[in-house]
Automatic annotation (TrEMBL):
The lineage of its organism: Eukaryota, Fungi, Dikarya, Ascomycota, Saccharomycotina. SMART domains: AAA. CDD domains: RecA-like_Lon. This is endopeptidase La. GO terms for biological process: protein catabolic process; proteolysis. Keywords: ATP-binding, Hydrolase, Nucleotide-binding, Protease, Serine protease.
């Protein structure tokens, strides 16, 4: 056996059915699906683990190794190392696997000793148990065979010889009673055996099991064990519990005993149970004699009927004893006024056991008093009353909650490798470095605090970004990475306070809130709860404000005592990880927003979409549509074509739908076309996906040229959309004879209208105080005075607002008055003041992405003070976070130096700008004031000077 003082074992683990229990030192046979077994052996043999050649040949002969599985990944290094430690010092290296019944905190590490094909879909595998170990992190895979972390237990060699002698005697007595029972049963006549099957079904079942060869071998082994052979004694105990037909609960209790002393205590209880079983319930001679004696009396039929009823009551009492955990509790005598049925008695036993165990659970004292009081009331009620049913339902919900035990506290994060966690997150998702880094920080801090038995409060995160960027799926990956359960709560449209906090028990049909329901479903406090679409939660109404209920849930200082109205007492939520998602974080109320740590997830660039499509989407869609990798060939160029012509959103949902559509078309072709070609060509896209909305980049965003309208008064702005994406936003101005000020259409908001008024004032001042070369100042002034301007922002069904279009509208109005076009390949963003200063704006990265996706913008004008945002975006693109932090520090210090020195304001390295040019195919131009824009836009068309002195451009 391995030295268990070393680190925990990471082993492949089979999740057993609830009624199956494997014990150490016993041969155990299970049936598993062929595909799962084949996947296990394929992974095992591809992991370069030393295995006996004869075993390898057996597995290959049974076709349990898939040699064509190109995507099969080997076991992680920790698993390979753990298997090697289990097989250490063994001449023959067998296959190693663990088995785990979720009802027990222990798993059994075993060798595979026999494999047999039952049919084309099922394998029979025989396992020899080696030793047991505490499960630190259970198998959370959705497959039957996953991975668990097991901490093996040491066998205590210092066992009292008197205890061994006592146990051996008790086991021997049980075997003697069993032999006598088999002898009596065998000697009975056929008629009585048939009667016994009806009178006591347990007798027939036990006879079948105790008359087998395994039980006879056990009886022989007992006589061979001496008092000095402590290890053999423990093996005998394992065999006794395994061979004798104990219930699953009894076997689990034996397996779950953490020490040898406690195991011996369980053996004592089991042997006492066996003695009572044979002496009081399965005395065949007594049953035979009693039946004949009663039949000879005058009312023999009636007496025999009562005897049968009595036997079944005894059997039920025996089952109640099993439910109570082997301890034989005296039955309560029911008064004549109590007419509860048997099912109600069973339920009351469960509640009674829960109440007795309250002192071992982490529940407040007030809650314990309240539960005890309610239970006393419940016992006095008639089961037919409505109040009884309501109180019963209440106890069912309370008992289903995963109350932490005060006796055992296991930190599941202390054995999680940071490197493994990082690899899992990177394998599941592309990018999202900020979210991944925050989870790794949480794991690191938890590992550090576990040494001092302290627990940190779990993070409360808000993932904000456009639809389809992976907010929900990253939350699932976090749960998988940590070994936590995952529950999703959709908040969209919820408008009832009670949905979050529960209804008070006084109402008919009352129930707990969504948080408590999630706890009940997961049955674990190690939980990740996703609060999906938190920005779309309903408005306050006569039913209360559901947002206000979340204030308590998402406050680390308050959720240690979250009070659900239905429960009526506080419950600690501080160890639950809450992850909220939103598309527009500004729709969240300020108090709620302040409680969460916001992580902004940007939309994907075209290059990123191509990368995600190749690495993640195509393999996933090929598998989902029943194809093999060699049956579909979609190149990067084709993915890029799909992204350019068919997808225009920030996320990747539409890209996944389109690739899935191609795979479905290919699936049809594989079945119907004789000369099938797996390659997807550019000319096939129209056949597979239909006609794209636009056939060229220039069609996506029209240049605005018209036979009726001159090209001036048209400027490209940039917008940050409510879904977190960016896009091109065109501003159009038309002048007609008149003298009114600018009128606007296109669902323009108040802030945008203020910027419009500001632009109007700035242009009027420029025309009256400055001269434009090539223009008559008097003519410009008259044109300004005699022109009514109509501004329109296309796509009028979409509301537009925000303080980032002042520069755009000012240059647009000036273009109209000067009748001087602004180049259509230029876009700009930024606010302007009355002193012509350019103010920084938000969402710059998303706006650049929108400009890039338009296909017609190659130059973007942004405020000089926004360069720091581009520095942050540039360093976020680094895969090496240490290198990114060093580069970020260097560039920010350089930026600070440039901004503090007017002579060096534009003397920065062009590293960031080169990255923007490469990533977005856009050239960045910085401006400090409106005159800088004139220099960039019309440098060769006109110059501006004051009417008194020439301005310095």
């Amino acid at each position: 056996m391995i030295k268990t003082t070393e680190t925990a074992l990471h082993l492949p683990t089979v999740n057993l059915e609830p009624d199956l229990v494997q014990l150490p030192n016993v041969v155990f046979t299970i049936s598993l699906p062929f595909n799962d077994v084949r996947r296990f052996f394929t992974t095992y043999t591809s992991s370069n683990i030393e295995v006996s050649e004869s075993l390898k040949r057996t597995v290959k002969k049974l076709n349990l190794i898939d040699t064509t599985e190109s995507n099969q990944k080997p076991f992680p290094d920790l698993v390979v190392e753990s298997i090697s430690r289990v097989n250490e010092n063994r001449d023959v290296k067998p296959f190693v696997i663990a088995t785990h019944n979720i009802k027990s905190p222990f798993a059994v590490v075993s060798n595979i000793i026999r494999i047999k094909l039952m049919d084309s879909k099922t394998c029979s595998i025989s396992l020899k148990g080696l030793f047991k170990g505490m499960v630190v992190m259970a198998n959370t895979e959705h497959t039957l065979i996953g991975e668990s972390i097991i901490s093996a237990t040491e066998n205590d060699s210092n066992i009292d010889l008197n205890e061994i002698e006592h146990c051996l005697t008790a086991v021997n007595d049980c075997i003697s009673l069993s032999k006598q029972f088999v002898k009596d049963f065998t000697s009975s006549d056929t008629d009585f055996k048939n009667l016994l099957a009806k009178l006591n079904p347990l007798a027939t079942m036990l006879f079948i099991q105790l008359n087998g060869s395994y039980f006879k071998i056990l009886a022989e082994e007992v006589n061979r064990v001496t008092l000095k052979e402590s290890n053999k004694f423990l093996q005998l105990c394992d065999a006794f519990v395994s061979v004798f037909p104990f219930s699953t609960e009894q076997q689990i209790r034996y397996l779950s005993a953490p020490t040898i002393v406690e195991q011996i205590s369980v053996i004592k209880l089991l042997t006492d149970f066996v003695k009572e079983l044979f002496e009081e319930y399965l005395d065949v001679s007594y049953l035979h004699e009693s039946w004949i004696k009663l039949g000879k009396q005058r009312n023999g039929r009636a007496l025999q009927s009562k005897f049968i009823v009595s036997q079944f009551k005894n059997l039920k009492a025996l089952l109640d004893t099993l439910d109570d955990g082997l301890e034989n509790k005296p039955q309560k005598t029911m008064s004549s006024s109590e007419f509860k049925d048997d099912d109600d008695d069973d339920d009351l036993h469960l509640i009674d056991a829960f109440i007795d165990n309250l002192n071992n659970l982490d529940i407040s004292e007030d809650a314990k008093k309240m539960l005890n009081k309610d239970f006393k009331r419940l016992k006095k009620m008639q089961s037919s009353t409505t109040e009884y049913q309501q109180l019963r339902n209440y106890f069912d919900i309370v008992m289903d909650l995963p109350w932490p035990s005060l006796l055992t506290t296991v930190n599941t994060l202390k054995d999680i490798s940071l490197q493994n966690a990082k690899e899992m997150l990177d394998r599941d998702h592309f990018g999202m470095d900020a979210a991944k880094q925050r989870i790794l920080e949480y794991i690191a801090i938890s590992k550090l605090m576990s040494s001092s038995n302290n627990q940190q409060k779990s993070p409360i995160l808000l993932l904000n970004g456009p639809p389809g960027v992976g907010k929900t799926s990253i939350a699932k990956s976090v749960a998988h990475c940590l070994g936590y359960e995952f529950q999703r709560i959709s908040l969209g449209g919820i408008n009832d306070f009670a949905d979050m906090k529960g209804h008070r028990r006084t109402y008919v049909g009352a129930g707990p809130g969504l948080i408590i329901q999630a706890l009940r479903k997961s049955n674990s406090m190690k939980l990740v709860i996703l609060l999906d679409e938190i920005d779309k939660i309903g408005m306050p109404s006569h039913k209360g404000n559901p947002e206000a209920a979340l204030l308590e849930v998402l406050d680390p200082e308050q959720n240690v005592s979250f009070n659900d109205h239905y429960l009526g007492f506080p419950i600690n939520l501080s160890q639950i990880i809450f992850i909220a998602t939103s598309n527009d974080k500004w729709e969240i109320s300020a108090p709620l927003f302040d409680r969460m740590e916001t992580i902004d997830l940007d939309g994907y660039t075209g290059k990123e979409k191509v990368e995600i499509g190749e690495r993640f989407i195509i393999p996933r869609q090929i598998k989902r549509n029943g194809l093999k990798p060699e049956q579909v060939n979609i190149s990067k160029d084709i993915i890029n074509e799909i992204v350019d012509l068919y997808t225009h959103e920030a996320g990747i949902r539409n890209l996944e739908r389109l690739i899935g559509k191609i795979c479905r078309k290919k699936a049809i072709e594989t079945m119907s076309v004789s000369n099938y070609n797996p390659v997807v060509r550019k000319e096939d896209l129209i056949m597979y996906l239909g006609v794209p909305a636009t056939l060229s980049d220039s069609d996506k965003y029209s240049s605005g040229d018209s036979n009726f309208q001159e090209p001036y008064g048209l400027v490209n702005g940039l917008s940050y959309n409510s879904d977190g994406s960016g896009s091109l936003l065109k501003f159009e101005m038309v002048g007609v004879p008149g003298s009114q000020r600018i009128s606007a259409t296109g669902m323009v908001g108040e802030v945008l209208m203020e910027s419009c008024s500001l632009a109007e004032t700035l242009v009027e001042q420029l025309i009256h105080t400055h001269e434009f070369s090539g223009y008559d100042s008097k003519v410009l002034s008259e044109r300004l005075s005699n022109t009514s301007v109509h501004m329109h922002v296309p796509q009028g069904s979409i509301r537009k607002d925000g303080p980032s279009a002042g520069l755009t509208m000012t240059i647009c109005y000036l273009s109209l008055i000067l009748k001087l076009p602004v180049p259509s390949n230029i876009a700009m963003t930024g606010e302007v003041t009355l002193t012509y200063k350019a103010l920084p704006i938000g969402g710059l990265k998303e706006k650049l992405l929108g400009a890039s996706m338009s296909g017609k913008i190659d130059k973007v004008i942004v405020p000089r003070l926004n360069r720091q945002n581009l520095i942050a975006a540039y360093t976020e693109s680094f895969k090496d976070r240490d290198a990114a932090n060093i580069k970020l520090t260097k560039l920010i210090l350089e930026e600070e130096s440039c901004l503090n020195n007017l002579s060096r304001r534009y003397s920065f390295s062009g590293e960031v700008e080169a990255w923007v040019r490469q990533e977005y195919m856009i050239e960045i131009k910085y401006v400090d004031d409106f005159m800088d824009i004139l220099r960039y836009v019309w440098a060769d068309k006109t110059t501006v000077k004051r009417k008194e002195t020439k301005a310095h451009l």
